[in-house]
Amino acid sequence: MNKLLHGCPSERTMGSLYFKRKSMAILKRGAALFLSALLLISMLGNGQAAGTVRYIQHGARDEKQDQLINYWLYLPPEAEPGMPLVVYLHGSGERGEGALLTSLPLFLKEGIVLCDDAVILIPQMPSNFGQWISIENAVMKMIDRTIEENQVDENRVALVGFSMGAIGVYDLVNLYPERFCRAISVSGRVNEDVSVDSFAFCELRTFVGTRDTNMPAQSALDFAQALEDAGYTSEAVQFDSTHSRMPYHVFQDEKILNWIWMDLAPQPTPKPTATPKPTKTPKPTATPKPTNTPKPTADPNADPDYRTLKKGMSGRDVQRFKIAMYWLGYFNDKNVSDQYNSVTEERVKKLQRYNGLEETGVADPALQRLVFSGNAVTTETAPKPSKTPKPSATPKR
What we know:
By secondary structure, this protein is of the alpha/beta class. The chain has ten helices and ten strands. Strands 1, 2, 3, 4, 5, 6, 7, 8, 9 and 10 form a ten-stranded mixed beta sheet that branches.
């Protein structure tokens, strides 16, 4: 399985991203097809193999609300029967038609996150709703349809949510405790009617920000502790982060993503080995005296996730690093190339200057970790140089 995130090199191609919605008027159909074409061009412009982007004209109808709900579907480039399913519930800012512009859906679309190991379902909440529990009927229909159409393993379904989506994670597991084996809450809160026992067979990981004023962390932390006290599987992690930066901490962390989908993947069953035939016992020989084996010296510059990037280099890791710099404000266009040229070098120097680092123009592993952690200073938050006051006029005598 290839490594995910942190801009680590990968030759895997990006999977297919589908947007499913109801058959609409001809004008809206044409507009959707046009947007799909733009998405395809955007992916090709980024130097990525775009896979297949299709527009499918049906969603899932919520019987309680009598409204059709759309959804996105991400398929790995080598999707096969029996893969796990990850259901991602977005936050309130992504409501509306095709408005998935941030967080995990964005990272998938831009190729910052590559997933080879799971099908990812992303329901699209209309702008006239405010909680996922309001359309839970449609969400469960989407899950059932995805399982049937893509032969997904119904016993390995993970539920992930950010902000309003994290609230939905607690609510849906509470309503359908037997449907999910794993849940991830990012910057969410827990409603009072959510039962601790509904997570008896669903592992929960809770991620909160200590500087999150939008969604105070205490209810989520208290619920995680209640699960532990009840003997259920639960873990809570706190980041020194604001609300808006939490997706960068969680969804660009390789270990967390491995837990979300890679660890869901079934382990291959080893083939039975033939029983060896008994052999004659050889006569014992004199044991030679052991010699001291010199200990291998560690390379201080080696890093399993990153290589040092500098002018003249190219590759997918260069492109992902530049895309991450774009979201921090250091590039004006997200359609960046995979070349580390003189422009890249100057932008890296600016990044280093704003973050109080030596301006080398070289992106070493430490700088890349800073950028992908979400803690780097952006161009908007960088301190602006103060103007030098004009010298006052010398008073006449």
